[in-house]
Amino acid sequence: MKSILLLLMGCILLFVLTIITGKITFAHQYKIRSKTGIQRSEYITIGKIKQYIQIRGQDSSNPVILMLHGGPGNPMAYYSYDWQAELEQDYTVIHWDQRGCGNTFYQNKTAAKPTLDLLLSDLDELVDHIRLEFQKEKVILMGHSWGTFPGAIYAGQHPEKVLACISVSQMLDFKKSEQVSAQEAVHLAYAAGRPQDAYEIEKMLEPIMKCRKFDKPEAAKLLKFRQLKEKYLPSQYSSKMLILQLFSPYMTFRNLRWMFSFGSLIAANSALYETLLADQKSTMYDYTLQYETPVIIIAGDCDWTTPYPMAVKYFNAISAPYKKFITIRNTGHIPFIDRKKEFSEALSDALCHVIHRL
């Protein structure tokens, strides 16, 4: 018994030392060393509360990209150091833990919960803060998944402040996305000779399509439904994610705690999820299709979380001074991690075209 305990303690110690070594290594590897560069994490006052931002770039005079994370409630600042390294050569990249999420949540536990209107107000304050600090007339907005929803709405409302709107894995219609991906999963389940699973997917979809109130039990049902679907769909989430998170030089106790705070995530963001489940103003088709700012949409061709065919259809429906659709092959919902080089090169090419048009 004693030898087993010692072995267990040794394994835990080895694991901890490995994590610490990895964090130190990556902190050194990804350190911004340019004299004109910027590398900063801080809390600033937005919407009368302290909200967390992370800033990285090799030259602070470069154009600014403001990244809007997915979820609602899934921060990405702490694992961004790897995939955005190439972009940092030509852009200053700012991440924001939105109200009700991650570091911002723990700094303001009693703050008003985010609604779409409140989040858009916070975003407007943040954009103005960035424009003032970095002396920029406009910023580039880049959203991922849920972040594309407020990002695209804001770009439609404030073209005078947005240089370009980039949507990665564009969220268009939450309920329709679940329906479309379920249809694909059912097809693949039948093809795999698993009619019982196909039936179960169809059965589980019905209450989700009718759901209007989103709490922890409803979220658990949605999670179970997605797990069953994803048995048959292509891989949606990168296997590299956990390594990037654990070895991140930005990973704090608050980040780690948030990863396992499913209940807090749902409770804090319930109003946003209920907006997406509502019958009105719940899809991107309820907002402008005529953009006054350049639009770049990037999608993995195997994405069924925010289905690729839906993104193509939306792209064809919108108008913009310049628009570009970028397909990242053989990847799912997080193309910037699965195919980071291809992603960065394609995005940089598109942004160069936008900037040269000015």
UniProtKB/TrEMBL annotation:
Residues in AB hydrolase-1 domain copies: 63-339
Keyword Chaperone applies: no
Gene Ontology molecular-function annotations: hydrolase activity
Keyword Glycoprotein in record: no
Pfam families, alphabetized: Abhydrolase_1
UniProt keyword terms in alphabetical order: Hydrolase
Family: Belongs to the peptidase S33 family.
Protein name: Alpha/beta hydrolase
